[in-house]
Amino acid sequence: MITNSAPSAIKTPYTVNLAQGDPEEKREEIRRYFHETYDAYEALFEPLLEKVAYRTRADALRHPLIFYYGHTATFFMNKLVLAKLVDRINPSFESIFAIGVDEMSWDDLNESHYEWPDPDDVREYRNKVRDCIDNLITTLPITLPIGWESPFWPIMMGIEHERIHLETSSVLIRQLPLKLLDANHPTWQVCDRDNPTVSNELIEVPGATVKLGKSRDDAYYGWDNEYGSYSKDIETFSASKYLVSNKEYLEFIEDDGYTTRDYWTDEGWNWVTYEKASCPRFWLPQEDGSYKFRTMLKEIDMPWSWPAETNYLEAKAFCNWKAAKTRQPVRLPTEEEWYRLLDYSELPDAPEWGKAPGNINLEGPASSVPVDTHEFEHGFHDIVGNVWQHTETPIRGYAGFEIHPLYDDFSTPTFDTKHNIIKGGSWISTGNELMRDSRYAFRRHFYQHAGFRYIVSDAPVEIPDDSWETDPEVVPYCEFNYGKEYFGVSNYPERIAQICLDLATKRTRGTALALGCKTGRSAFELAAGYEQVTGIDFSARMIRIGVQMKDKGYTQYTLPEEGEIVSFHQANLQELGLDGARGKVDFMQGDLANLKSIYSGYDLILLDTLLERSYNPEKFLESVHERLNKGGLLVIASTYDWQKSVTEQENWLGGFKVDGENVTTRDTIEKLLSANFEQLGEGKDVEYVLRKTARTFDHNVVEVTAWEKK
Amino acid sequence: MITNSAPSAIKTPYTVNLAQGDPEEKREEIRRYFHETYDAYEALFEPLLEKVAYRTRADALRHPLIFYYGHTATFFMNKLVLAKLVDRINPSFESIFAIGVDEMSWDDLNESHYEWPDPDDVREYRNKVRDCIDNLITTLPITLPIGWESPFWPIMMGIEHERIHLETSSVLIRQLPLKLLDANHPTWQVCDRDNPTVSNELIEVPGATVKLGKSRDDAYYGWDNEYGSYSKDIETFSASKYLVSNKEYLEFIEDDGYTTRDYWTDEGWNWVTYEKASCPRFWLPQEDGSYKFRTMLKEIDMPWSWPAETNYLEAKAFCNWKAAKTRQPVRLPTEEEWYRLLDYSELPDAPEWGKAPGNINLEGPASSVPVDTHEFEHGFHDIVGNVWQHTETPIRGYAGFEIHPLYDDFSTPTFDTKHNIIKGGSWISTGNELMRDSRYAFRRHFYQHAGFRYIVSDAPVEIPDDSWETDPEVVPYCEFNYGKEYFGVSNYPERIAQICLDLATKRTRGTALALGCKTGRSAFELAAGYEQVTGIDFSARMIRIGVQMKDKGYTQYTLPEEGEIVSFHQANLQELGLDGARGKVDFMQGDLANLKSIYSGYDLILLDTLLERSYNPEKFLESVHERLNKGGLLVIASTYDWQKSVTEQENWLGGFKVDGENVTTRDTIEKLLSANFEQLGEGKDVEYVLRKTARTFDHNVVEVTAWEKK
Questions:
Q1: Which of A607, B97, B211, B677 is least enclosed by beta carbons within 10 angstroms?
Q2: Predicted ipTM?
C-alpha cells in the first residue's frame, strides 16, 4: 500500500431521489452521495501495493490504472468546466486523464505518448477536485426537481460516472499481476463458499408486453440512453433457473466447445482464434488439466458453483452448443426478454429494496457467490446481482432519444450494433447501475463481471442494424423529412403531400408514385390517402432511409453542428403518426430520365424537386401521361434552379432566351403537358428549409403546379 | 415600287396621354396612334423599288431591310405572347424576325443561316398582325391611367418601338444603293435650301441644377431607362449657337483632322484607321476633291449650311481639334448639360408644342435643313430637331431604375459604357423620341441622323464606368447589402451596424474598422455614428462595389433568376439615406490573417462573418487589442461554419473535440480575448438571407458577441 490510512469501509447508498424532499436536505444528501462514491473509488485502489501497479497495463489494449485513477476526477472537472460552473484546477492532468477509457489501437497506446504522473500527485489532484466539488455543492443554488438543466445534474453525472468506473476498474485490477496487489485487503475479500453444483433447468415465463424507457420527469438520475419509450410483445419462453455455472460451462469446454467452428459466430470465431482462447479469461488452466480461478485480488481454487464469467461471444457459443445438443432453440435473452423476466419476478426498483435482493451493491463479498444462493420469484436465481447477464441486443436509443449536451458521447459511440447490452448488475454494481431503467453495453469480446442465463424461445431475435446515418449528402434530408422545423417553415414533404391529398379529394386514390422522394416522408404521408405508394429516388443512399423507416419504423442520424461537432437525432414514424403507413409504402431506386415502364397505372404522380436535378427531364414529361390513369393527377414541385453541373444546358427546360425572349421552365412544362393535361388552378409557392449546420441553411421556394390527365 | 398603292401622307400625332380622358375615347386614340404609326412604317418602305432592295444589306454588319420590315410586327407579337394576350400568328416569322436589330458579328450574318421570306409574304403577315392588334385594342379592358401593368402597355410599347425603327430603318435606307430606291417618292422629299454659311459663336449658359428622370406616374409612355431620378449641379458653360455645319466641319477635315492621331480617342483612332475614313459617312468624296452628299433617297450637291452628320468619335475628334486650335476646353455636352440647355431654352414638352419648334416630327422635309433655320431662346438654334446631338455621356439607369418585365433587354445591354446618349431628335424623330425624358444611346461608331453642338466648359466630364456587375460571387452580396429583403428578414449589414452603434452610445466614436465588409453597406451604416470608417475585405471584387458606391453613389448588378435568365438591379446610396456617408468611408483590400499594422487606433472593430472565412483566424484575435483604443469595442459576428476547403482544420477556432470534449468557436474566442477584453452582454443571434436565384437562398444565423477592451 502506498497510503498509510486504514482500510475503508465502503458505503453504497442508493442514487438520490432528485424530485422529492427539502432542497437543503437534498444538498446534503448529494454531498454525502458524492463523498461516499469518491471514497469507494479511492478504496478500490487501496490494494495496489506499489506505484508500479498504477503504471502497469492490466489489459494490453487499455491504459494503466493511473489513468482511471485520475480520470473520474478529471471527468467531474471537464463536465463542470463545460457547464461553466468551475475553472480548471490542473489543465495538464485534465487533458491527460480526459480520454482513453475504451479499448484503444496499438498506436494510441505507444508508451512514449504518455508521461504518466506520480500516483501521489494524482491523489493530491483528486483531493483538490473533491474540495472543489464539495464547495460547489455548498454554493450552487438548488431547486427541486433537479432535471437536465440543473447545475446539480453534472454533479450527479460525475458521481454516477465514478460508480461505473468503480466497477470497470475493478475488472482491470482483476487482470493485474497478483504480486502488485494486496490479496488480503479487508475491504475486498471474496466469497469463501463453493456449493455442491446444482443442475440447471428451464422455467416458463409467460408472454406479455414489456414497456421500456424512462420518462423525462423520472425522479432519478439517468443516462441519455435510458430515456424515451419502447414497447414490445414478448412471446412465452423458458429461461434457465440459474445463471450458467462454471460447472455447467465446463461441459461446453470439454465437448470441444472452443475448437468447434459451428458453435461460434463469425465474430466469435475470429476472436477465439486470435486470442487462442480455450476457456474464459478468469479461468487459469493448470498443468494437470485442472483450473484455478482469478478473483479481483487473488487466485483461488475453481469455484464450480459460481457463475461462469465469459464475454458475449463465449456465452453465445455456449448457447449454440446447447441448442445443438438439445435440439432446442437455446439462446441468450434479448434486452426485452430480460425485462420480461424482471417484470415477472416483480422485483421493485432499487430505492425500494431496503436490502439488496441478491449479490449486488457491494452488500456481499467482493466476488461472485454460488448460483443457487439468491432465489427470486418463480424459482429463478440471480434475476439481478452476482454477475451481469449478456443479452442478444446491441444497444440503441429508444424513440425520443436525446443527448445530454454536457455528455454527447456517452451513448452514441455505442449505438453501432457492436455493443451488446448487459443486464442485472454484479456484486460491485451500485448507484444507477442498480436501477431498472439503466442500460449498459460493451463490445462483445469485452470482459466484465458478467455471465449469462440462457433461454429457449422460438421467437426470432431481431438485431437492429442501426448505426447512425452520417452521409453528408443524406443527413440534411433526414432532418428535412423527419426533423425539426426552422424559421417557422413547416415540414415540406408533409405539405407537398397534403397539397396532393387535397387535390385528390373525390378522385380515385388507388396507387401513387412519389418521384424524388428523398428519404421517404412524402411517400408515407401520401399513404394517408392512397392505397399503395411507391417512392422513387435516384439516390440509393436516400432510399435506404425510407426503407429503414418502413422496415423498422425509425432511423437515426447525425447532423453537423459546427465544424466536426455533430448532434444525434432519431426519427420515428410512430411519433409522426405515420406508423400505419408502413405497409402501404415501397421504395425503389430509379432514374427520371430512364424510368422503367412498369411504373404506370397511377392515380397520382408527384414529381418533387426532381426536374431540375435530372440530366434529361424532357423525355419524362413528354410521356408522363402514359403512366397515369385517366383523370389522374400530376403534381410538379420545382425551384427551376438549373445547374450546368447537373443538367447540360441543352437539356434545361427553361432559364434561357429563345428568339430574344426569356423562356421559363414553367413555359416549357405548360407546352409539354398541354396536349394531355388540364392545369388545375395557379402555381403555388411552397417554402422549404434544409439544415446544413446549426447556423446555416438552404431556404428555397418551390412552385407547385397541378395537372389533370385529360 | 412593289406595291401599287398611292404614296402615303404620313401622320405623326404626339404620343398618347395615358392618364387623362375618357377610357373609350382613349381606346380610339390608341387605335389611331397604332394605325398611323404602322402606316408611317409601311410608308418608309414604299421607296424600295425591287424585292432585292429588301434583301440587300445596307450595312455590312446589319441584317437586310426585310428583317426590319418584319421585325416591328413580330415585336408586337412577341411582347403580346409574353403578356399572354395573343397566340402566335406565324411562329416561323416570329422566330426569324425576333432578334438581330443591333450590329452583329460576321459569323451571325453568314447568309446561309438565313432564308429570308418574300416581302409580299411579310406584308401579308404584317397585315395579319395589324388586324390582331386592332382587334386586341377593341376587346381589351381599359382603365385609366394606363400603367406598366396594363395590357395596353405592351401595345404602346410596340407602337413606340416601331417609331424607333421608323427612324433607324431610314438610316439603313440611306445606305442602300441608289438604284434600288425611288428618289422621287413624294413622301420623302429633301430640303432644297442651302443657306449661305454662318459662322458659329459661343453663347453663355448660366449654371443651374438639372433634375432628370421620369416619375412612375408620368402620363406618357416611357422606356425603362427614363424612370428614376438624378440631379446635378451644372457649372456655367458656353455652347455653340448653331450645330456644327458641314462647312464648319470641313475646316477640321482640311486641317488634317482625319490623319492626326492626337485629336482622336483610342477608340476613335481604331475606328478611323480600320474604316480608312477621311470624312463623314454621308459625304461622298468626288475625284476632283469636292463632295456630294447622300440623303435618304438621293445624292445631292454638298449642302454646306446643313448640320454635319458624324458619329460620336468624329464629333469628339472635332472638339479636340477645336480645343487645340482655340486653347479652350472645347468638348461635347454631357447629358446633363444638354438638359441644362433645354431648360434654359424654356421649350415645353412635345405634347404642348402644337407645331414643331424645329425640323422634327416629320413636319419638315425628309432631311436636315440649314443650321440657322430654327431659332430658340437666347439665340440658340436646333435645341431640338434637324439632327440628333452627340453627348459625352454613356447611358446608364437613373436611381430607381427598374426593368419592364416584358422587355428586359431594351436598355440593360446598352448600360455598358459603350453606348453614348444622343439628344434632341432629328427630322424623322416622332412619338416618344420627342419627349423631354426620352433617352436613346448608340455605340460611339454608329451613324444616325446625328451631328453635334460643342460647348466650352472647365467642368470635367465624369464618365461613369458602370457596366452591370455580373460576377457570380459578388452579385449575391450586392443584393445582400443593398437590395430587397427576403422571408421578412431585414437587411443584415444595417442591423449589424445598428448593434455596433447601439453599443457605442456614450463612447468615443472616432474611427471604425469594418472587417469582412463585402460590398460595403456596413461601413456606410457605421459612418452614421463614426467620424471615419474603413471597410476591408479580402476580395478586391467585393471592395470594388463599395468603392463605386463611395465614388458614384450607386451600383448596378444582375441577379440570376432561373438558369441563365437574370434581372437587373440598381442600388443607390441616396435612396438608402446614406449619401452623406460617402465622404466618411474608405475601402481597402486586406487579409485578416496578415492585416497591416497601420490598421490600428480604432474605437470600433467589426469582424463580420470573417473568422470562419479566414485561413488563419487565431493570429488576428490574439493581437486585436493592439488595434483598438482603450475602451474600444470589438464586435464579432460569425456562423462558426468552418470549411476545410477554406480553413485547414488545424486552424479552426472550434468545431472539434479536445480531450474528448467539444470545443466551440465561441469557447476559443472567449479564451483568446479574456485577457484583454470584457464581454458585453450575451451572444445575440441575427439572421441573414443571401439570394442565389429567384427561388433559392442561403438563410443563416450568425452569433454576435461584443467585447470591450480593458
A1: B211
A2: 0.71
